[in-house]
Amino acid sequence: LLSPARAGTGLSWRIMEGASVLVVEDERAQRYVLGRYLVKEGFQVLEAEDGASALKIVREKPVDLAVVDIMLPGIDGIDLVRLLRSDFSAPVILLTARGEEAARVAGLDAGADDYVIKPFSMPELVARVRAHLRRAGGFGTASDDGSQLVAGEVEIDTDSRICTVAGSPVELSRREFDLLTVLLRRKGRALSREQLLHEAWGTTHVTEKTVDVHMARLRQKLGSRVHIRSLRGVGYRLED
Ligand code: CA
Q1: Is the peptide bond before 119 cis (omega within 30 degrees of 0)?
Q2: pTM higher than 0.70, yes or no?
Q3: Residue 237 burial by CB count (10 A; 0-12/13-18/19+): exposed, middle or buried?
Q4: What confidence score (pLDDT) does residue 114 get?
Q5: How far is the CA of 72 from the centre of ligand 1 (A)?
Q6: Distance from residue 31's CA to the centre of ligand 1 (Å)
């Protein structure tokens, strides 16, 4: 039973109680193993073997997060993410195979939040599921006014455009600041270079190498105070 104090916290309460995770995977054995593990970890699991059933489920039932295999018969995982995104705002994690960099990027650009590479360990997947549920539930994010963004000891104020690391101001160029803002707003999400260009530059008519150059300088200035992970062939993720 929900106590009155907790009833208003919505998703945060349901995470503890067992958030509902939709698993979209056509291979029955994999779907079963995944589902069983998530149930054991305290989640409520809904299963779909193809895109059409997945779309039906999200229309009819509350789903807090979806795990979507890229390789599906009929509507593939990337198209499914695109279709889901029209009225489904919960996090989506893609299951991808080794060497599917292009599909991974396409999936992120279609609106997926993250991906794991098969074969993955169950604890690895569950850790990503929890991280995205926390983020979606508003946990561990910056202050409510929206101008302060924080990760570890790195803090920015988007109004005054001041960046501090462990309390000391750090001089960032305009692009570096914009790039860091995007990373902090999307903390924990995998972002393709194209997404970063689109959001920090406002254009994709710049070579993707530009992102790497600015990212290298940003990392140099921030030092080890914040962990910006390179996602090979894909882009970057600012770790929680
Ligand atoms: Ca599959």
Answers
A1: yes
A2: yes
A3: buried
A4: 95
A5: 5
A6: 9
